[in-house]
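Fold tokens
===========
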Amino acid sequence: MPSKGIRVINDSLKNLYGEVAIPKKSTDGNTICANYYFGEKILIKVLHELKLHPLTNVISIFPPHSNPFQDENYLYAIVTMKESDNFYLQQPEPIRSCLLALREIILSQDKEVSSAWKYGMPFFCYKGKMFCYLWVHKKHKRPYLGIVEGNRIHHPDLISEKRSRMKIILFDTSRDLPIRTINTILKLSLDLYKAGVIKIAR
């Protein structure tokens, strides 16, 4: 059975076009692949809606004559996702949109911030050092932003829930994200690394 993220792409394609032929699917390390036959415009639209990028997530596109439909309006493409992409896609709405928006906010903080898949979770690193992550609270069913060095940060919206080191901020998906608060917390966290309070390996 394909991963839920792949099934989300399947469903999106079917909603736009109808039946989609999937000759094969495979997994390799942290990458999930599936092969599709469909029109180029549909491909671009689906990737855009799912916050995937054509240059990053489409690793091969073959000309129409190589696809089984023998139709000039169709292309054969191999769509690939990282495990982190799959994590976001398998979340139900509106949690998915909330997490994707949080990802963009985090990545926009500094050019040295990058995403990473660690411990089965989407983490974000500053110069290779993990400083925050995203997850969904099992009890409250709400998305949250976790701060790795949360015990060093004092902010009224951060809670520890018996964690000795990390703190989190929960989000209500029925309300707009508190952008100013998020930026403040992320800045406080990143300042620990920039100031050398948290050492970064050279």
Notes: The beta strands are 25-28, 31-38, 58-62, 75-82, 113-118, 121-126, 129-136, 143-147, 167-170. Residues 179-194 form the longest helix (16 residues).
